[in-house]
């Protein structure tokens, strides 16, 4: 399998953490990519019309995107349990995934606002509102202290990758003071080998 890779993409990381939890990461070859919302990569668009990473090429010739699809594919390939098959556990895992992806979507918009949008066009209130999604998401998790406990599935992996990205790009976002339970959960979860691993392109 091949995966278009970007070292700081939290969605790519979500796929690789899932792959490692499933014992599949060694089977994935990382391909370089230049995904950018404005300077769009023609090479990537030829594979994924959205021009985004993660994009995966499977051994049987399929093209898969986005992280939700790729993670579910990997789980099925490995016969894993990252996507519980049915019942409450499944809906909890998928909803946690949606929550983590939602935080990431908002954080990415802010990242693009900061790094790609011309300064004269930036909108401070909009930026604050997007980052507030992390605060409200973590407050909801803080109110349900058992939800993340002892779960290694697509829900906890996505929340973990969202926190990883916030630490990387928005280290001054002081959510830990308000949500010590979530912070304590992540302190433990982030010690997993899959969360500690740093992937890089070969060579
Ligand atoms: N919902 C997608 C989001 C993927 C995404 O936005 N990836 C970013 C990199 S972190 C990207 O490719 N951005 C380029 C663009 O927005 O055109 C997923 O879960 O994979």
Structural class of the secondary elements? alpha+beta
Bin the helical content. 55-70%
Through-space gap between termini: 18 Å
Uncertain runs are none
Give your account of this protein's structure:
With 203 residues, this protein is of the alpha+beta class. Helices cover 55% and strands 6% of the residues. It has nine helices and four strands, in the order E-H-E-H-E-E-H-H-H-H-H-H-H. A four-stranded mixed beta sheet has the order 2-1-3-4. Helix 1 links the parallel strand 1 and strand 2. Helix 1 packs parallel to helix 3 and helix 4 packs parallel to helix 6. It is globular. Bound molecules: glutathione (GSH). The site of glutathione has 14 residues, from helix 3 and helix 4.
Key features of this structure:
alpha+beta; 55% helix; 203 residues; globular; binds glutathione
Topology of this structure?
Layout: E1 2-5, H1 10-21, E2 29-32, H2 42-47, E3 55-57, E4 63-64, H3 67-78, H4 87-115, H5 124-142, H6 154-169, H7 175-178, H8 180-189, H9 193-196
Parallel strand pairs: 1-2
Antiparallel strand pairs: 1-3, 3-4
